[in-house]
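Render this sequence as a predicted structure.
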Amino acid sequence: MGVSDAMAFLDFSALAQAPLGGGKRDVVEPATGKVMCTVGIANAADVAAATRAAANAQKPWAALPPRERADVFRRAGALFQQHFDELALYATRETGGILPKGQHEVREAITICHLAAAMPLQPQGHVLPSVPGRTSIARRVPHGVVGVISPFNFPLILTLRAVAPALAAGNAVVIKPDTRTPVTGGLMIARIFSEAGLPKDLLHVLPGDAEAGEALVTDPLVPMIAFTGSPAVGRRIGELAGKHLKKVSLELGGANSLIILDDADLDIAASNAAWAAYLHQGQICMAANRILVHQSIAAPLLQRLVAKATHLPVGDGATGQVALGPLIDARQRDRVHAIVQDSIKAGAKLEAGGSYDGLFYKPTVLSGVKPGMRVFDEETFGPVANIVTFGSDEEAVALANNNTGSLACAVISRSVGRAMAVGQQLKAGMVHINDQTVNDDCVNPFGGPGIAGNGTSVGGPSDWEEYTQWQWMTVKDTAPMFPF
């Protein structure tokens, strides 16, 4: 594995060079175009071999005393902390983020490990009402092998948030990370858990394309799939999982709305809008795809947002001197640019940006955005702030709900009561009052309805629900006689 900088802990040579049937592929740093490493690419046969090994390893793991399982996650959290700087820099470089984004991923990884360490020691069922002489319990039991398919944007968090609780609940896991971020989204996690003492074959990392993904979703040894990614791929996974009667957890993002009411402080509102639209180049499932602004304050708000877009520095995020880094690759850049250009042709007005240099897309502002334009209807996943105006609170709600559901929405107003009245009408998995849409915490249920997913959530109280299933068990002192 050839990494341009010397890295002590991230020596993935044994993992990265493992023979896989799909060949090998270079992992390219988006900001510089340099090859960071070369990884194996899995095919369907590799997936089948991994799921067999995982299934064999799962039962002894689930039978391990809970304190011993918990110790693995405590050690994993300590290793993330011990190698914090190195891991954060690698995550920054591989994802094209800014350094604080890479640091955030590692901080959250530590917390996710701490939360997972607590799970084996928590109550895992209920004693149910029953007749005298019989004990009736409902207990949580692991699925067996959980398949995790994760994306490129926040690969460490969005992979580990499934991997850690799934393992803590007694499952084995097979990860198929995005081939653009296979280290941060998989091999880094495998390295940490290997050092932390996770038993062999419980965790497999298989970077791969559609062949590997479909093989994982259809494998009979994998009863559950956790997927984070685009609605198009999510629909395909949901279709395949349904055909094979599997549990599936989908987190797909969606067209999120930030609603700015007419009594909002303009400087605060503009700051929230810029953060929600431009953080990590807009490549966040919670990014504000629509900025809904009351028509009476639209002009001064637009002026402030254009000023921010014009002056935000764009460049290599690992240098620490920029606010926005590059988009992940040319394909993503071209998609963003096509959506912007198509929307301009449909009547939107370009107020700032709308151009790029390599993978660096300038912070963009579009005004006059309406339903039917691509930037309104689709998740852009780029640094594009789309200004939509409304005349009443009712119209704002109708515009925000003009799809099949959102992952996140937010409302800004000087009146908390008014903002809450608007927020309570929004079809979204997460609603934030007097804040912007990009909010997450490891302990909150994260998910949304409709295009945002399939109504499932991950994180906090949702983890036991997602990564285990109920089993009813009754116990009698002696077996009874029956009339037959």
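Summary. Residues 99-118 form the longest helix (20 residues). The CA atoms of residues 250 and 453 lie 5 Å apart.
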